[in-house]
Write the structure tokens for this entry.
Amino acid sequence: MISNYLKIGWRNLQKHKAFSFINIFGLAMGIAAFWLITLYVADEISYDRYNTKADRIFRVAQHGQWNGGKFDLAITSPPYAPTLKSEFPQVVDACRIDPEGGSKIKYGDKALEEGSMLFTDNSIFNIFSYQFLYGDAKDALAKPQSIVLTKTLAESIFRDAAQAINKTIILGDQPATVTGVIADVPVNSHFSFQALRSFPADYKSDDSQWGNISIYTYVLLKDHDSYKQIEAAAGTFFDKYLKKDMGAMKFTMELQPLTNIHLHSALSYEIGSNGNITYVYVFSITALLILFIAIINYVNLTTARSSIRVKEIGVRKVIGSGRKQLMIMFFAECILLTFISTVLAAIIIQFTLPYFNQLSGKSLVLLQFGTAKTVAAFISFCLIAGILSGIYPALFLSGFKTIPAMKGQLGNQHSTILFRKSLVVFQFVITIVMIAGSFIIYQQLNYFQKRDLGFNKTQTLTFHINNREVRSKVDAIKQQLLLNPAIESVGIAGNPIGNNNIGGGDFNLGPDGKATPESKIVQSLQIDEDFIPTLQIKMAGGRNFSKDVSSDAKDAIIVNETLVKELGWKDAVGRRVRTGVDNDGKVITQTIVGVVKDFNTYSLQHKISPMVLYLPSEAKDKDNLYVRIGKGNTQASLDYITKVYSEFDIENKPEFHFLDQNFAAQYQTEQKQGNILLIFTILAISIACLGLFGLVTFTAEQRVKEIGIRKVLGASINNIVSLLSTDLMKLVLIAIIIASPIAWFAMDKWLQDFAYKININWWVFLLAGGGAALIALATVSVQSIKAALTNPVKSLRSE
């Protein structure tokens, strides 16, 4: 019986080719979009789950709040890991990670560009699941100057990864012994690396380092719920170890579950670029809505064309078919159509995946979940989508009464027509919300690109000096560079800005060196006297550092406006403040000589933090040069900088990073997700319009005699187009009214993730609605004009 129903379904598909194409192609696009987004979402929620102990691994974060300010930090200080392990029996193991482990790599006559390297403890291998190919995890990083390479990096250096063990490579100007090779880190990890290095022998993690906030701390607990006991003891922990440096505040220690970090963490100083659970929800809903749009097309076209099959239904009832049998027949037809659509969708996915991966920055494959699971999922999806698509048409068509059906009478169709119109409105509500969302996302991204950052990022580049000996000659490099008139200015800083990884420090900024509750966790950046003019940062008060004032080297600091505002100071310049404690426990005090206007060092997702600028105390801290070059001289200037640098460092070439590109890179996630939403918005519009085209085509066929009579009576093409499109355009107008507040609420929620954001303008919704209306009108007009151009004589002979 089922096979007979499938044969009937196949004949119907062949008999009505145009409508079959609209249903199959529209549903295939909807299924393809749904599956692509499902692959994307599945990848996003899989982050860090490859770790066998993932449910017991946590990252330690810090939160502090006081009158006038707060901090939310992903970083901690060096003593955290050993102290947590010794203080809490719930902690099985702990490790520290310092992202500042990168250096140029040299081996023999081979030199490689800087890889992503981390300083860490050997205990990292007890916590995370890194597969050792060569070497022993027990003591791979137990000694200073040890390094563990990933397989890809080992092969880049030695060709054969097995040959790497016990070889000595040079990192910058420091030797390191390769003690292990591990498999490459899975891409679905919230932090990645090419190598792990042991901490230097002189690395300090004693009690003097609680204020050195620059380290990521991870712990392995006995069981998942143990984190609650540790968090509950945060107050005691703070009083015992941190209060003497941080002062009085409401302190919270958070243990973040490893598998939550990628999607749920947006703290200051994140170790990498995280995802956002909001986007996962948005894309999941988008996938379902696009699929619903495609299903609505099938429901609308099937119920609209019910008059064609009403006599067939009457005959089947006369010869004994019950409602149950008719419903099975319609379900079988729908599942057949869904199966064909799903096969076509699989082909579409296979061809579009490379472009989707490029757009999303992923490496997804069709068989992401394995062949067996994927095939089972496709079969299940066919059945579910087929049932969802067919349930209303089956109930509707099988419900016709026998005698009226034999006469071709449909009965009262008011409720069915109203339902069909509601579905059209629903389709366009979805598309208008998506159009408005895409507009607002691109407005926000454009705002990021154009907003004043407080400094001039154009024509300014930075590069890192790896060799410590070269850092001692950095002043000579500056002088040599300035001999070229194309180079306008050169400055020095301890970190590159724009990469979300400037260090932090604990400063008790009490007056006259007294310890007060005014302690602040601030950004700290070492700069020279030429950094501020090179970036064209403006002074709000006081002065810049000066070579002519010898005391500046040890005594002077500059703060930003945010710090002054948060502390409520009216006159900051000239204040003498406590900035730390030396190794002997002696309080260090310095004088504020200037206040700079606020400038962004991070992406605009983050508010400007309180900042302290100070001169480098040692040559090793002069590791980033900032160079402003004149317009039109870019390549010549780069060649000159490379030539000058090679005179001081013959083994390494400078790796240039332009500041405007550094900041643009911070918004790649939003840019990619905006592009994905735009693509699926276009797809949703296309599917909706495909269904609209089918409805108008069928309506024109049903009203062919009416159109012929109207033309004979003098109706113009415009009159006919208006006749066929007016009702549908009313539905689009209703959709605009419903969609606008939904879009405003959704996008206002999205914008709350940004510290600096646009205001949503009313004209965005007008533009989105108008765009949807124009697209709908164009779709309707194509078929309406075709119907209007039909010879009325032919129309009136239609029967």
Notes: Confidence is low (pLDDT under 50) at residues 402-412. The CA atoms of residues 51 and 129 lie 5 Å apart.
